[in-house]
Amino acid sequence: MSALLSLQNISKRFPGVHALDDIDMELRQHEVLGLIGQNGSGKSTLMKIIGGLHQPSAGEMRLRGSPVRFGSPLEATRAGIGLVHQEQSLIGNLTVAENLFVDKPTDFSRFGFYRRSRMNDAARIQLDKVELDVAPDTLVDQLTFAQRQMVELAKVLSLEELVEGHLVVLFDEPTSVLTPTEIQALFRQVRRLKMRSSVVFISHRMDEVLAISDRVYVLSDGRNVAERLKDETDPDELYELMVGRQRAGSVLPRSNPPDRNAPKRLAVRDLTVPGKVEDVTFDVASGEIVGLIGVQGSGAEAVCRAIFGVEDSHSGHIEYEGRPVRVSRPSGAVGLGIGYVPAERKAEATMKGMSVCQNMTVTFGSDYGYGGVLLSKRRERREAANWVERLKIKTPSLDHRIDQLSGGNQQKVVLSKWLLGRSLRLLVLDHPTRGLDPGARADLFNAIRQLAEDGLSIVFVGDTLDEMVTLSDTILVLRDGRLSQRFDDVQTKRPSEEDIVRAMV
Amino acid sequence: MTPALARMFPSIRSAGDLLRACGPAIVLVLVCAAVICIAPGILKWRAINALLFDAAPLLILVIGSTLPVLLGCIDLSAAAMASFSAVVVTLLVPEFGSAAVPLVLLGAAGIGAAQGWLIGRLQIPSFVMTLGTLGLFSGLALYLSNASSVALGAGVAPLDFLGGRTHGVPNAFLAVVAVWIFLSLLLRFTRLGRDIYAFGASELAAYMSGVRRGLIRSCAFAISSVCAALGGMMLLSQTLYSAPTMASNLLLPALVGVVAGGTAISGGVGGLSASLIGGLTAVMVRVGATIAGLPGAAQDVAFGIIILVAVAVTTDRTKIGIVK
Amino acid sequence: MTQAQLHAHDTSAMASPRRGEAGTQRRSGHIGLGVLKSAGPIVSLLAMVLVFASLTPNFVSAANLQAILESAAVPAVVAIGMTFVLVQGSIDLSGEGVASLANILLSILIANSVTAHDLGAGAIVVALAAGLAVGALNGTLYAYLRMPSLIVTLAMWLITLGLAALLFPSRQPQILDGGFVGLALHKHLGLSALVYLAVALAFVAFIVERRTKLGRIGFAIGADEALVRLAGVNVNVYKVGAFAICGCLTGLAGILTAAQIGVGNPLAGEGLLFPGIAACVIGGTLLSGGRGGVLHSLVGVLVLVTLRNGLVQTGANPLLQKAIEGVVIVVAVAASTWHLRRKTRVVK
């Protein structure tokens, strides 16, 4: 097989960072190439260079044998390189057809005016490829999540007509926000794509990468540290290559099982969130870790958000420490001692441009001041520094900007924000490991485990079954907004993953 | 930079940061130098004294307007509030005497707080809300005063104080300094101050961290309105007449002052000292142009260019993603 | 950090799966109450007409309706231009200055009582070009120097206002070009050329908005700029384009004002800006971008103009006019965006 795309000695420097260092890579025809590495190892940067979003500082890229250099994503697109982004890249208030062709040179306009019928006809052809039955002039806002994913794929597939020869399709962590069933659907499309293109596939999850790829490259610290054929390797070896130490996913076992007779901290009765959750009932004891899981749209996230008071409306009874409570806004929840780590870390949890210390002290900093009004910067800094040490947060100083830390460290700062509160009794975690590499994930899990053993109650929505089983004392499975099954004493009697999946779908 | 200095100014890490931090001050110094070159007489104590007296209403408006901007909001109604409250005071003085002034300030606080609360409750942009109240206040001022000047009754102690001097320094300016110090301490050492900056940096993240959005917004707009009303009192103490549009020409200079000082319109960055520098810059440009005999139009052009330069220099583009 | 990295950051923050949920909610709104929601401004316009008509029969007379349309022409031109900027989520405050500048340029370059120039139609071209240039400069400073549009255009407001005043000759120039002044004076079917021009412009603008890349990408930028950048679209070009259109149309508004009043006035633009923006938002164009459009803005203009006219016709105290307008702006915008309210919605 000949190389469709080859990279030689590619380097990329950002001010102060050496993101990629002398990378060699070769993508053959009809091949799915897996690319793994920890956060910050340079995977996304590499994708962006191939996709034309970044330009390499040094090195050469050859496509179909001839050197290429893309100044913009548009140029890469024209050359037949399509990038399926980490998260969805469709524009909500444009139509499906407009989205399909927004990044491509087309002849649908004359003197700057669109010829809609032509564009919609062309879109129809692309949508048929992914067997998606929606009108091309539907606004993307009106599609479901899964439909959008298909449009996303169609957007890349529509390169076929524009470019002669093989396509290069890049998937940058397409699975990180997908559920297991959606992932399977995606994999079917990827296998179909192989007929007419070569695919680069990035994921954090070793099992996924091995399931779909023919060959795997491992990146670490911006260097290409290993290349393995699918059949010659296993997840453990890949983990080791990636993090350079024994499988980093190891989480300490629970030292003391939760007290079955511990007082109830939270009692949720018949919680209903219109359109998302129906009649969900469960308890959380002090020191217990309750894991919620379900496919996309199962309502697990909505349960968390309702407890914290950010769902627009909900009904049912919530008892907290034995008293009925009505939480209608986050400040109310905080007053009760409930914290929430949102899934949308960048939008909802971190204040970009503010320092680590400012982000940590925003909620409970005034507890360390005088009378809840005046602040004591000295005392709260001491407390913040204390948590930086306890959670091993890697930051140059307390005054470093949070958006310049890695995802895992940002998440730990968000966690510390809540842990700073002496009154915190219940912590709700919504997809806490999203976007974290295995090392950071294990650190985070150990911290959560420790907190639970100290008496903090935890409700969390996990991304993977592995996570659920590793961390939870109790697993609640949600399906279509209803509680479909419950697994108790998970740490002593581990349910099989198959059982859980069966309850989910 | 020495470690000690780095600890004192943790946000300054490079030459760019330094320029951003000092840019507005440098602009102010340059403007002052230019004015002094044109008219060395400005350095006389009497001239400075008169200048501070004149500048006080604008400065207090700049300080007040800073708080909504720190939230990432904007208060277009401040100048209208100044005129409106001056009109109301003159109408209330015959009835309430000196008590009219605190009454109006209290009323302004209430109206401002209601404004802030409504922005959150109705979820309409502060630009639209305050555009509406700009119309409302100026309309009411016209209506109440019957579109004419109203003379201020004699013997209103607070206004006499604002119009007077202590040890030769205009009391109005002392009031500006007092408000500035008070609000600076509030921003720096209280929970309210921290919440305001958090809100400005990311409203959603602050909300999800338990910051009480409605309360914070109400406080910021209440402070803005009180400062505006105070500005109206200062104008009134200078002219002893209230007119329904007496402060309307302060709307733009007040915004110029805020942004020329380096407070980012997107929120979370900047502060009152910056605004004071920006406000003084605006004042000096006006004074300089007047002394140099330039037409008012030239001032406008100078204002415009100073805003562009000051903001171009002071904007930390790595902190903002998408600029609107 | 580089710019590209930065965009990547924003994208991941914005392109969240939760948008899916919001989308579904919005869809259900579209099917049921959607029509009513988007028709809200029109309904309130009609309601207002009915109320005023019942209060004073004079209100629906042909003469008065003509008067309403005449007074709507210039604000409509401003609002159409402003719409292109607002749907992108930016704002242009420079309107009053630009209109004044165009007004002065025109009145000293066309046959007039003060200067010796007489460029005829050339004067119109120069004035329009000035508006276009200022608009393009606004857009360039905003898009390429990454300064907030509010600040750039605030500065440009002052600069153009100053330039207009500096260009103003010693005496007020009376426009002597009969044909030009005739634009506002001669009526066809009871309406001046200004009204027809505004209608034609609205039509063209509507086509541009719906059928061209400039229009469509503008909406997309307002909805999610980071995504549009990610799609490889040169966003800055479209931003400059929108501001150029806005500047040019605002300049045109200044020119039309000159035709209406027949003299050059360095403050001709006064009172165009805030009502222009208010009209757009009343009509349902969001300041945050991505929603609304030219037709929405036109309805907003009619609401404001009708309100003004009706208040006069019904004998309301003219001094209260501004106050009532202020309340109407707030109520109208609150009502038209009420269905968008969410706890986690951020409105600055």
From the helix content, strand content and strand pairing of chain C, which structural class follows?
Answer: mainly alpha
Mean pLDDT of chain B: 88
* Assembly of the depicted chains: heterotrimer
β-strand percent of chain C reads under 5%
What this model shows, in words?
The complex is a heterotrimer of chains A (505), B (324) and C (348). Chain A is α/β, with parallel strands linked by helices and 505 residues long. Chain A contains 18 helices and 22 strands. Chain A has two domains: 3-243, P-loop containing nucleotide triphosphate hydrolases (Rossmann fold, 3-Layer(aba) Sandwich), CATH 3.40.50.300; 264-337 and 425-504, Rossmann fold (3-Layer(aba) Sandwich), CATH 3.40.50.300. In chain A, 33% of the residues lie in helices and 26% in strands. In chain A, the strands form five sheets. A six-stranded mixed beta sheet of chain A has the order 6-9-10-3-11-12, sandwiched between helices. A six-stranded mixed beta sheet of chain A has the order 18-19-20-15-21-22, with helices on both faces. In chain A, strands 2-1-4-5 form a four-stranded antiparallel beta sheet, with helices on one face. In chain A, a hairpin with a 2-residue loop joins β21 (474-479) and β22 (482-487). The longest helix of chain A is centred in the C-terminal third of the chain and has 16 residues, at 438-453. By secondary structure, chain B is mostly helical. In chain B, strands 1-4 form a two-stranded antiparallel ribbon. In chain B, α3 (45-70) packs across α13. Chain B is globular. Chain B starts with a helix and ends in a 10-residue tail after the last helix. Chain C is mainly alpha-helical. Chain C has a single domain, classed as ABC transporter involved in vitamin B12 uptake, BtuC (Orthogonal Bundle), CATH 1.10.3470. In chain C, 72% of the residues lie in helices and 1% in strands. Chain C contains 14 helices and two strands; from the N terminus they run ααααααααββαααααα. The longest helix of chain C is centred in the C-terminal third of the chain and has 27 residues, at 235-261. Chain C is globular and about 60 Å long. The interface between B and C is large, with 64 and 66 residues.
